[in-house]
Amino acid sequence: MAINYPFGLQLKQKFVEFVHYQGLFHPCEIDKIVAFWDEDNKIKATLSGDEKYNENLRKSDVMFIKNTTDNDWIYNKLAH
Question: Is the pLDDT of residue 80 over 80?
Answer without folding.
Answer: no
